[in-house]
Amino acid sequence: MKQSRRLRNSILATTAFVCLLWWIKLSESFFGLELGFLGVTPGIKEGLLGLIGGPLVHGSYQHLFSNTLPLLILGSLLIYGYPRSWLLAVLMIWPLSGLGVWLFARDATHIGASGLTHGLFFYLFVCSIVRRDKVSVALMMIGAFLYGSMIMTIFPREQGVSFEYHFFGAVAGTLAAFLFYRRDPKPVEKKYSWEQEDDSEDSLIGDAWQANTDSESNADSQPKTTEKPEHH
Description:
Blueprint: H1 2-31, H2 50-53, H3 61-81, H4 86-104, H5 114-131, H6 134-147, H7 163-180, H8 200-221
Helix pairs in contact: 1-3, 3-5, 3-6, 4-5, 4-7, 5-6, 5-7
């Protein structure tokens, strides 16, 4: 019951965030807003606003839709699997990915939540390697099955895609994983009855064998005497 409630809450939390992104995009369309200034523009002071606002705005509905499912799935996996560290991870990935873009990216305005999605993916990926418990590996297998191609999208592929956001999101997710992976305790592994070792019978045999060995060694250690025959 507790696990199902935690899974439900993780899905609700990520769904609420995705709904916020869609509400922002719909507001742009309905009210004629232009929110591109919230993106990360490298090298200028105004571009630092994108460290917070960059993941919230998208260039098109197709752009937003391409980030919706990864956010829902990877975000739910993160919150469910790492209840004590997920918020710290997001608070680190969000601005740090934008800072890397502001420092090193091409001269353009970089927007979208793809840096965040790549950070979530690499956080799950690295945590599964360093923790190596069943839950973290299972979560990563789900993420890798659906979005394993994110490993390749951190490199330049398309002209209009900010691979820099992908790359620095991956860097931020990796750093966060190394910093916070110990905050969530590993699950206690259940042992089944056939895995339990019953040494009671072996111990009895071992004691008997030991006692027999000791008696033989004591007999061997006592001095031996030979009686000389008497001559009459």
